[in-house]
Amino acid sequence: MLGPRIWSSVRPGLSKSLSRNVGSWGSGERKKIDIAGIYPPLTTPFTATAEVDYGKLEENLHKLSTFPFKGAVGGVCALANVLGAQVCQLERLCLTGQWEDAQKLQHRLIEPNTAVTRRFGIPGLKSSMDWFGYYGGPCRAPLQELSPSEEMELRKDFTNNGWL
Fold it and tell me: What is the pTM of this model?
């Protein structure tokens, strides 16, 4: 059973693992991106008497530790509109147990995926589709096209990871 003392020593490590330093600038400085939304939330189970259920917590931690990619079981694949072959390749690598190659590819896909979903949304997705030869088309109201500086930032997210 995972007791309170052990849990308090595990907790800081879990929160540190929710972000990664990726990419590298010419100066050698590393850029930090938030990948907290990629990992499943870890909830604290309670008993009927409102005590922490350490046995259930230990069981949950054990289950999560066996999942590839820290518990990932799916994705919102807006990026598949732009890098469809690469997203399908990630699935194939996972299905065939090629975990190291899958993890390398996943890490290259995180930043562009975040850009076309959370950061720039539909306008970013449409712009990037145009770059890759697809028809993204103009944004419908009330959405606005990306500004030139936003488009440069979006392009950097794809370029830094070797897609452009």
Answer: 0.56
